Every structure is written in structure tokens, then in C-alpha cells.
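Usage

Read records sequentially. Each one opens with the input sequence:
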Amino acid sequence: GLKVLFIDLDGTVVHYGSFPSPPSPLVALPASATGKVGTLSSGTLRMLQHVADSGVPVVVLSGARTRTVRQRAELLPMASAFATENGGRVLRRGAGGELVEDEAWARHVASHEEQTRALAAIRGELEGEGWAIDTDDYKTMLRLQLSRSPSSLTPPDAARVGPHLRAAANLDAVDVRVACSGKRHAAAYLAGAYGGGAGLGECGFMCDDDNDVELAGEVGVLLVLSPCTPALDAAAAARGGELVTLRAPPGVEAHAASEHLLGQLVGSVLGMA
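and closes with the structure output:
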């Protein structure tokens, strides 16, 4: 059976905008550092709790800054752990519900000093080019704000960031992170911790964006939101036939897609309908 369910937040279970006819009542999240207010559906929360109650740990993998995730954690009491900054930092839930930084993971990331230096160096280069860069409460990555940067600038690709860093689109931004982090690396670490030494092939992942692609190709069960990015769509299509890939029907998007996919997981994969 499934050992761990990993979930992304923004664009996956948290959605932004106006939803006049949601599938279930919506719960507003605390505003992010940039002022955005997302919502979670009560149906999504109910099904995530159902998954956790069945014995499958729920673990959040997010590109958000740690401060934002801490604020949201109260609304996700079923989550056993949170990876923030695209896997750069890991927070585990303590016995009293508090979130405690995983020091072993922090040492792992800090040990790659050449990657930290590369991140500082490219930050200076990008600032010199005129990029609007968000570094507030980010320790292992930086976020390029596309809407606040000159449209003439080209976001950095793999060749530009070099071997010590990784870059990926994330909603309306581009995240540049140290290579030793990433959702795939954090997921492998947390699968071992919460899944009894499980491999990624024994886990599920619910996601929507380019920074999810690497992990999406390795999990046993993939839940793809609609709409998703072309890169994630291609990664989902390339998965082997022995792997389970769940998609929302055409036209089913945002909160309705979140609830649909979790309903499929609960009913057909976990057999808890």
C-alpha cells in the first residue's frame, strides 16, 4: 500500500481567485508575505484527514518560505512534516503539534558550501541585471518575481545557473535553489523517515507545476492538477504503465480538481470509499 502522500500547496490544494460555486465551503488562509490570500476547500481538508487517519502520513512539499508555511500549518493538522523552500528546509511536527526544524537535513544542506556560494554569486549577477528578487526568509533559494522585473529579461536556465544550482518556474515566479535541496531529495529523505524506509515508488505525490517535475517521474502514484504546466503534463504522460497516474477530467479545475483527485485516491487507490 501507499506509504506516504506528498502534497504541494499553491495551485494544488491551495487556490487563488474567486470561486462563486466551490464544491464545498472554503477556508481562507493567512495572507502570504506578498499579500496573496489563498483558500482551501473543506472537502480537501476532510479527505486529507481521512488519508492520515488511515495510517498514510501526509507530508507537504512547498516552494513557499518557512514563515508562510508555519502560518498555514495550523489549518493542516494532519500533515506530519513540511518541506519548505522547494525542499531546502524540513520541519517536523512535534508531539504537541509544534513545528521543529530538522537539524540533520539542515546540516546536509549546509555541508554543500559550494552551492551556497553559487547562490550568493548568481544573486549578485541577477540583481545587477535588474531582476526583482525576493529573498525574505529564504535561506536556500531565491525567487525571481517576473511581474516586477523588466519584461526584456530572460529567466535563467540550467546552463545559466550551472551545476551547483537548479532553476524552475513556480506559478508567476522562477525559483533558483541549491542543487542538494529540491522536492525529490526532500521527499526521499522524508519517505525514509515516515514511510518505514519506503522508496519513492511506494509514495504518492499531488502537484501542478514545473518545480514538481523531478519527483513526479518517480512516485508510484501521481495526482496531477488541472490546469498544470506543459512540463508536468509531459512528465505525467511519460510515466510507465506500471505507475498510477490520476488526472481530473477536462474542465474540472482548482478546488473541484483537488477534491476529485483526492476522492479517486481514497476510493480506488487506498480502497477507503
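Summary fields computed downstream for this record:
- The chain has a mean pLDDT of 95.
- Residues 9 and 135 are 20 Å apart (CA to CA).
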